[in-house]
Amino acid sequence: MAAWFPDGVFASDCPSRVVLDHVMSKWGTLVLLALADGDALRWTELRRRAQGVSEKMLAQTLRTLEADGLVHRDAKPVVPPHVEYSLTPLGRGLTGHLVPLMAWVAEHAPDIVDREAAAPARTTRQTSAQTLSR
């Protein structure tokens, strides 16, 4: 990290912040991971793989990732329209790092979510105890 951030500060105007916003957004990450297998996917398949994404958010996410040079949009000149999305070489390089991160997340998510679910109960008990001690 010192090579990119020698003083250890993540400056607010650093271009990496913009890229992180695009890549690490919930839908950006899921779309990139859906495309990580290497196959070009159509809109409906992307929407199926990123369950819960609205049409508006999927369109916005794909436009952003395409503008960033991470996703390629291939519109076939046919009727009805046939559009496929795939990763660019830059996108493949990125997903090479995202896939291991997602594997870590998938492995640890149940424990983390369980801890998170238990946290409000502890906080509520602590707050009640503090209130009673006053």
Summary keywords:
single chain, 134 residues, mainly alpha, 3-stranded antiparallel sheet, 5 helices, 3 strands, 63% helix, 10% strand
Note the total helix count: 5
**Fraction of residues in β-strands:** 5-15%
Numbering strands along the chain, what is their spatial order in the largest sheet? 1-3-2
Low-confidence stretches: none
Instruction: Label the overall shape.
Output: globular
Query: How helix-rich are the residues, as a percent range?
Result: 55-70%
Assembly type of the chains comes to single chain
Mean pLDDT: 88
Q: What's the N-to-C terminus distance?
A: 47 Å
Q: What series of H and E elements makes up the topology?
A: HHEHHEEH
The main sheet comes to: 3 strands, antiparallel
Coarse structural class: mainly alpha
* Rg, alpha carbons: 20 Å
Could you give the count of β-strands?
3
What does this structure look like?
The chain has 134 residues and is mainly alpha-helical. The protein has 5 helices and 3 strands. A hairpin with a 5-residue loop joins strand 2 and strand 3. The radius of gyration is 20 Å and the shape is globular. It starts with 14 loop residues before the first helix and ends with a helix.
Short summary:
The protein is mainly alpha-helical.
List the helices and strands and how they pair.
Layout: H1 15-23, H2 26-35, E1 41-42, H3 43-49, H4 55-67, E2 71-76, E3 82-87, H5 89-133
Antiparallel strand pairs: 1-3, 2-3
